[in-house]
Design goal:
alpha+beta, 13 strands, 28% strand
């Protein structure tokens, strides 16, 4: 299904960076900015692999090149060289999934599965809504790698449906809300968080449809709400309200 997508160039682009960028990359910073590049081997397209070297031509990092972003490289691997392929992505996604296994014990099947930079996959977010996965791309540099990322993702997290959401800065032969795997959704997707049932519009909703990053905040509001009247301002899907009502 990804045969019509562009492929990354076989030839990697070599980048030499300024001292401040060297220091940041050695500390594990996930981005390389355009202004930090002092020398580049050749022009490259979005999604081509960029190898970053220090002043002594030693390997610093490898990542996804994006010529249209001031964040010129989203770094995938620091310090030690790595082959960026399906096995690489499979290992990263597996590690991310293992960190969230305990959520099932809390009667939760809606959560952020991949946290972009925090999980070593900068510019890529995946949220789980029960049997639906929603992938959001924040850079076009991921598009040539979807042919490897999607099979790896579905192998680690089998799902009935995979929906693609795109940041507004991405122009590609794809549409925000496209269903890549499974039948398109015709209604909001129901899921549970800490035993409460919610629904989300994964096609048109903000971000991927819900704000999973506020799960702990919602729990806190529920714990504080007993015997109180609560005004939920900017309620969106009403998640804080439901936690407050339960509390």
């Amino acid at each position: 299904m990804f045969d019509h997508f562009p492929r990354p160039a076989e030839k990697r682009v070599a980048l030499h960076v300024k001292p401040a960028a060297e220091r940041a990359l050695r500390k594990g910073h996930p981005w390389l900015f355009e202004g930090a590049i002092r020398k580049q081997s050749h022009d490259a397209q979005a999604g081509d692999l960029a190898v970053i070297f220090d002043a002594n031509r030693r390997f610093l990092a490898i990542g996804l090149y994006d010529p249209d972003s001031p964040i010129r490289v989203k770094v995938l691997q620091h310090r030690d060289p790595a082959t960026i392929n399906r096995d690489f992505f499979h290992a990263k996604i597996t590690e991310s999934a293992q960190l969230r296994v305990s959520l099932a014990e809390k009667n939760t099947n809606g959560y952020r599965l991949i946290h972009g930079e925090n999980d070593g996959l900068p510019g890529l977010v995946v949220d789980r809504y029960a049997e639906t996965l929603v992938m959001k791309l924040y850079t076009a540099a991921w598009i040539p790698h979807l042919r490897d990322v999607v099979p790896a993702l579905l192998d680690v997290q089998p799902s009935a449906r995979l929906v693609l959401r795109l940041s507004r800065n991405i122009t590609a032969d794809l549409r925000d809300g496209d269903t890549l795997i499974g039948e398109p959704s015709t209604a909001p997707i129901a899921f549970t968080e800490n035993g409460l049932t919610f629904s989300a519009d994964v096609i048109h909703g903000h971000k991927t449809g819900f704000f999973f990053d506020h799960r702990e905040n919602r729990e806190r509001v529920g714990a504080l709400a007993k015997g109180k009247r609560v005004l939920d301002v900017f309620a969106y899907a009403g998640a804080f309200s439901l936690y407050a009502a339960q509390g």
